[in-house]
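Severity: low
Component: inverse-folding endpoint
Summary: output formatting inconsistent between runs
Steps to reproduce: submit the following structure tokens with default settings.
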């Protein structure tokens, strides 16, 4: 199996994969398959895990030609008063139905490698790629939320072993997606007898791969294997964010001879005036935020992931409540566009977006803000 080098990004662009177009700043949605979406708040109007709601958001993204509809792989909620993210749709079956209901957007599915067998993942991914006519992207997650991994009846692996498992897992998925003949595989984690998966995906040799590992090992995994990496910023200072993005790209270029796309996530709080936006932020985050659920989330993230140490996560807590730790875009429509411009200027290829009242916020974005994003030359 060859490791794809620089040519991989070019071939994805040539094949017109939605994630690999020439727009200055790609856009996407995040966690539209789960209750609460990205906002850990008791405010009315947060996302419900029902089909009409998640479908509405996917169709809004499709109408704006969003490059990425990214669901979250989640099996249990985070407690607190809201039991944030406790209800939700499984991401592969979600992606298949969303693919059938959209025309243009890139559709992701998120696989927790310890919970999904590679033969199953390859077959489901192939199915989604055919339903969407080549718009599928596979997000590989090694699993950091211990209670949900343990729900499957097996202990959670140590951090380094999770990535070793992911490496072997991905190797098998790629073989299933590309090889003509049956193959056997015997590794540390998997034994495959006469491995076979047909048809192969629409996108040749295989669909794009996403990873959001933030630890050193995770960043190496993404730099070596992913076509798009997501950064979780440990700062909100644009210059420091720029450095974090550049160092990701450098790692991929220097160590693995690869070009990768680098994306992040952001949340939008828009008002007629900046004050109105800031007042709403205060209301849903400080007055009505579910701080207990956020504490549970960050405690387990700090213990089991290595993206950021606990002490670095604490100051980010309000950003997790406001929008899954994203970059804040708060203010008037012009200020939101300036924020998106800043994200492009610091070197990001794209960003996922979320709103506290997801549907209302995204409808307003389409009506009021998106034309300005286009006017600014970002799309
Ligand atoms: C955009 C984005 C999407 C993610 N999606 C998921 C997900 O669906 N499920 C999950 O358990 N973790 C998800 N993560 C977490 C990361 O993939 C990663 O597992 C985590 O940061 C821990 O990895 P590390 O120990 O290498 O830092 C996501 C992170 C980001 C930034």
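Observed output (run 2 of 3):
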């Amino acid at each position: 199996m060859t490791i794809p080098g620089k040519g991989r990004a070019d071939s994805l662009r040539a094949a017109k994969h939605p994630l690999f177009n020439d727009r200055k700043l790609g856009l996407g949605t995040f966690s539209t398959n789960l209750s609460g979406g990205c906002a850990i708040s008791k405010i009315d109007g947060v996302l419900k895990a029902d089909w009409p709601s998640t479908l509405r958001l996917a169709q809004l993204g499709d109408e704006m030609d969003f490059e990425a509809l990214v669901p979250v792989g989640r099996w249990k909620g985070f407690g607190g008063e809201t039991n944030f993210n406790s209800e939700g749709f499984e991401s592969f079956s979600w992606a298949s139905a969303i693919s059938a209901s959209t025309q243009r957007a890139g559709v992701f599915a998120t696989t927790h490698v310890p919970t999904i067998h590679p033969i199953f993942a390859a077959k489901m991914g192939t199915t989604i790629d055919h339903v969407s006519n080549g718009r599928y992207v596979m997000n590989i997650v090694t699993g950091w939320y211990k209670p949900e991994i343990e729900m499957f009846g097996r202990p959670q692996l140590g951090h380094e072993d999770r990535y070793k498992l992911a490496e072997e897992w991905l190797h098998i998925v790629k073989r299933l997606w590309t090889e003509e003949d049956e193959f056997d595989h015997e590794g540390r984690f998997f034994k495959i007898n006469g491995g076979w998966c047909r048809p192969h995906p629409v996108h040749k040799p295989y669909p794009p791969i996403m990873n959001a590992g933030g630890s050193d090992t995770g960043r190496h995994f993404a730099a070596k294997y992913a076509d798009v990496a997501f950064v979780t910023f440990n700062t909100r200072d644009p210059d420091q964010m720029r450095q974090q993005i550049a160092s990701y790209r450098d790692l991929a270029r220097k160590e693995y001879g690869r070009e990768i796309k680098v994306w992040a996530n952001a949340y939008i709080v828009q008002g007629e005036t900046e004050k109105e936006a800031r007042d709403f932020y205060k209301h849903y985050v400080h007055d009505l935020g579910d701080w207990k659920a956020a504490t549970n989330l960050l405690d387990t993230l700090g213990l089991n992931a290595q993206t950021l140490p606990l002490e670095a996560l604490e100051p980010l807590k309000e950003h997790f409540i406001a929008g899954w730790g994203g970059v804040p875009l708060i203010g008037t429509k012009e200020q939101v566009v300036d924020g998106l411009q800043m994200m492009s200027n610091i070197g990001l290829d794209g960003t996922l977006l979320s709103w506290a009242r997801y549907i209302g916020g995204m409808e307003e974005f389409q009506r009021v803000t998106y034309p300005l994003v286009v006017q600014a030359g970002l799309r």
